[in-house]
Each structure stands twice: as structure tokens, then as C-alpha cells.
């Protein structure tokens, strides 16, 4: 019985928390909560405590523990956030937005920052609204496989050019019956090598 009482006293002592007035403070209103003063003192020497800006990350009413499970909101995975759509129009290079759209290689794709926010059911530390980089890619319903099939079987009638949005070129290809077959073969080669893309600079729709 005495051993049980001593064990309960030790557990209660280890879980005892300091009064709010005795907690270590950062700035004017930011407070870091720890179960023991020794726990806080030991964590202050941790490299993460030296690198993280506690004042910038904390918000009123949120207990901040950089070494605990509460991660910064800006680090939340994409499936738990909602971001604004990338505008369809282009802007000047020195302005915020996409200088251009499209690109077949990673080195050719431009990036821009969009406003994102964390879902309401997700808990995190710091501002729940932030910016995240997004590629300047847009999709307008063009599929590579269907376009290639159009080019193979109906390319002599310029169906592939019309589908991609090249109406003027499509009329010329139709009137010459695919350039007597030469233009038809050239467009098949251009499609297969990635050198013929939609006229609106959009990318091929992805397959999931």
C-alpha cells in the first residue's frame, strides 16, 4: 500500500505543470508550455529551438512546442490544404503570376506563388494562410493518345490540327489532303516527338 502511494505521488509530481504566470515567455503574448521547468531548460539548447522563430510561428491561444507534434502550417501536405487557382492569363515577368504557360521539360516550366490555407479540421502552428509555389501549367481537355490516333487515321483530313486549335493551318492541310500525304506524315512525327502541342500552350491532360 505504501509503495502504491509513493508511485502515485511520483507520477503526479512528474506531470505537475507550472502556473501560467511562471511559464517562460517569448515576446509579449507568446507562451511555450512544458510539463517541467527542467524539460524546458533542456530543450532550449536543442538546435531546432535556436533556428525556429518562435514569435513568427505562434498565435494567440496556441501552445507552441517546436519539438512536439504541432507542425508549422506551411509544412502541411497538399492533401490537407486548399490553394487558389492559377490565373489563366499571363503577366509580365516582374509581376506576380505566370510569365508563360506550358513546357514539356521540367527546366522549361515556370513557377508562381499562390495563396493556400489549411483545412479547418487540421491543427498546426503559425499562420493558417500562406503561399506555396505552383507550376504554370494549365489543362484544356487535350489528350495525347486521342490526338495521336486522330493524326494516324484522320490526319489526312486535318482532324488533328483542328482538335489542337490550329484552324487556319487545318484548312490548308485539309484542302491539300494532308499535303499529298507528306504533311500528314510530318504531323505524326511532330506529335510523337513532342514538338506539336495544343495551340493555347496548354499541357496534355494527365492520366490517373
> How many separate helices?
9
How far is the N terminus from the C terminus? 64 Å
So what's the overall shape? elongated
Rounded Rg: 30 Å
Q: How much strand?
A: 5-15%
Report mean pLDDT, rounded to a whole number.
77
Query: What characterizes the major β-sheet?
Result: 3 strands, antiparallel
Identify low-pLDDT runs. Answer: 17-41, 55-63
Strand line-up in the sheet with most strands: 3-4-5
- The count of domains is 3
The helix-strand sequence is HEEHHHEEEHHHHH
Structural class label: alpha+beta
**How many beta-strand elements?**
5
Provide the helix percentage. 25-40%
What do these coordinates show?
The protein is of the alpha+beta class. It folds into three domains: 14-70, no CATH class; 73-135, no CATH class; 144-192, no CATH class. Helix content is 34%, strand content 11%. The protein has nine helices and five strands, in the order αββαααβββααααα. The protein has helices at 2-15, 37-43, 47-51, 54-57, 144-154, 159-164, 167-175, 177-180, 182-192; strands at residues 25-26, 30-31, 81-83, 111-118, 129-135. The strands form two sheets. A three-stranded antiparallel β-sheet has the order 3-4-5, with no helix packed on it. Strands 1-2 form a two-stranded antiparallel ribbon. A hairpin with a 3-residue loop joins β1 (25-26) and β2 (30-31). α5 (144-154) runs antiparallel to α9 (182-192). It is elongated. The termini are far apart. The model is unreliable at 17-41 and 55-63 (pLDDT under 50).
Amino acid at each position: 500500500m505504501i509503495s502504491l502511494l509513493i508511485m502515485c505521488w511520483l507520477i503526479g509530481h512528474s506531470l505537475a505543470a507550472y502556473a501560467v504566470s511562471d511559464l517562460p515567455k517569448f515576446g509579449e503574448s507568446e507562451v511555450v508550455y512544458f510539463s517541467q521547468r527542467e524539460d524546458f531548460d533542456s530543450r532550449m539548447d536543442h538546435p531546432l529551438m535556436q533556428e525556429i522563430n518562435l514569435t513568427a510561428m505562434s498565435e494567440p491561444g496556441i501552445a507552441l512546442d517546436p519539438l512536439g507534434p504541432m507542425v508549422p502550417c506551411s509544412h502541411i501536405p497538399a492533401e490537407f490544404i486548399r490553394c487558389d487557382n492559377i490565373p489563366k492569363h499571363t503577366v509580365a515577368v516582374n509581376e506576380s503570376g505566370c510569365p508563360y504557360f506550358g513546357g514539356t521539360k521540367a527546366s522549361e516550366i515556370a513557377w508562381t506563388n499562390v495563396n493556400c490555407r489549411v483545412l479547418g479540421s487540421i491543427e498546426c502552428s503559425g499562420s493558417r494562410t500562406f503561399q506555396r509555389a505552383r507550376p504554370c501549367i494549365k489543362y484544356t481537355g487535350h489528350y495525347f493518345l486521342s490526338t495521336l490516333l486522330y493524326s494516324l487515321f484522320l490526319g489526312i483530313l486535318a482532324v488533328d490540327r483542328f482538335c489542337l486549335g490550329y484552324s487556319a493551318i487545318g484548312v490548308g492541310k485539309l484542302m491539300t489532303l494532308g499535303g499529298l500525304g507528306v504533311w500528314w506524315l510530318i504531323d505524326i512525327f511532330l506529335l510523337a516527338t513532342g514538338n506539336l502541342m495544343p495551340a493555347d500552350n496548354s499541357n496534355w491532360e494527365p492520366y490517373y
